[in-house]
Design goal:
Helix content: 40-55%
Bound molecules: iron/sulfur cluster
Distance between the termini: 45 Å
Strand content: 5-15%
Radius of gyration: 24 Å
Number of strands: 3
Strand order of the largest sheet: 1-3-2
Structural class: mainly alpha
CATH topology of the largest domain: Endonuclease Iii, domain 2
CATH class of the largest domain: Mainly Alpha
Largest sheet: 3 strands, antiparallel
Number of domains: 2
Order of helices and strands: HHHHHHHEHHEE
Number of helices: 9
CATH superfamily of the largest domain: Helix-hairpin-Helix base-excision DNA repair enzymes (C-terminal)
Amino acid sequence: MPSNVPDLLALPGIGTYTAHAVAAFAFAQRAPVVDTNVRRFVARAVAGEADAGPATTAADLRAVEELLPLRPDVAARASAAFMEIGALVCTSRSPKCAICPARARCAWRASGSPPSTKPGRKPQGYAGTDRQIRGALLAVLRESAGPVARTELDLSWPDAGRRETALTSLIVDGLAVEVRPGVFALMGDG
Ligand code: SF4
């Protein structure tokens, strides 16, 4: 396993986050590890913003790298600390500033913890989603005393294409099974 970020990035399937995390946590390298929690912590403590806003990978990496101590092993410990503080202390809804090791130098706290000026994230709806279609299919299978014919499942959702895609995904995920051509059941009931 390579120990530096460029060589780790050259491996298939290894992205920026993983390469930096392996370099920092397995090899004590000075590599910024940036997840959502770290971005929020840095946005508050350094930039004085309530939220980090949309991800901008290069800028986020630079912002966190600037905070890392120069000694690689100490920087790696700082990376772990940033992640823990972001996940457990500087939480999205109720930051525990009283126990935060950064409270004395936190820009957001010093400015009175103003509300976010960034546009809120749109909550994901449920109506019309693949999850709803899968749920409708599963409800039919669950409520039936035995295997269910495709014609019966057809009544659960009007769009045939999306219904078929959802049914296939349930089979692939191991939640449903086609017990014989055109007849379906919950996995385990078939
Ligand atoms: S003092 Fe509060 S807002 Fe600032 S970094 Fe710590 S937990 Fe987050």
